[in-house]
Amino acid sequence: MKKLFIILAIFFLIDFNTMAQNPEYKEYPLNAVAEKSQTHEEEEMPAPSLRVYLPPAEKATGRMIIALPGGGYSHLAIAHEGYDFAKYFLNQGIAYGVLKYRMPETDPSIPFSDVKASFELAKNLAKEWHINKNGIGIMGSSAGGHLAATFSTQENTEELPAFQILLYP
């Protein structure tokens, strides 16, 4: 009986430890953008969303990074090229968002418009999120790096990210 109690106690400690290590987030749908593509079935092209992780207000630097995971424009490597970076940036006091963008199919403007919508959302909620709307940068890995570089060089000057982090674009 004593062994069972010890095993159960260890199980609960490990489980609660794991839960405490995952930072909290909120998912923001970018529904208005999804209406752009009338030619695709909704189940083929789900609406984009931005998962936002915010540092405590007292630790916030006012900076934010919007991450674009890669995946060869066929899928998203959302965990290791997106969510897994959240804890690091939060420890630095930097707000962090991971964009679930839609695949281009035959229209490269589709993921581009999702990135634009994520920046618009972040700028609209900057005060609530304790970020400087002129301090929002972009980070992309692989195909997401390509998309981040394209967005950073082809958008008008008001929409440009404050900085870029390009990981093997």
Number of strands: 6
Averaging pLDDT over every residue, what do you get? 85
- Separate helix tally: 6
State the end-to-end CA separation.
56 Å
Structural class of the secondary elements?
alpha/beta
Largest sheet: 6 strands, mixed
Shape: globular
The SSE string, one letter per element, is HEHEEHEHHEHE
Beta-strand content estimate: 15-25%
Radius of gyration: 18 Å
Structural features, described:
By secondary structure, the protein is α/β, with parallel strands linked by helices. Helices cover 37% and strands 18% of the residues. The protein has six helices and six strands. The chain has helices at residues 2-21, 31-34, 86-91, 109-124, 126-129, 143-154, and strands at residues 26-29, 49-53, 64-68, 95-100, 136-141, 164-167. The chain has a six-stranded mixed beta sheet with strand order 1-2-4-3-5-6. α6 links the parallel β5 and β6. It is globular, with a radius of gyration of 18 Å. The N and C termini lie far apart (56 Å).
Secondary structure blueprint with pairings:
Blueprint lengths: L1 H20 L4 E4 L1 H4 L14 E5 L10 E5 L17 H6 L3 E6 L8 H16 L1 H4 L6 E6 L1 H12 L9 E4 L2
Parallel strand pairs: 3-4, 3-5, 5-6
Antiparallel strand pairs: 1-2, 2-4
Helix pairs in contact: 4-6
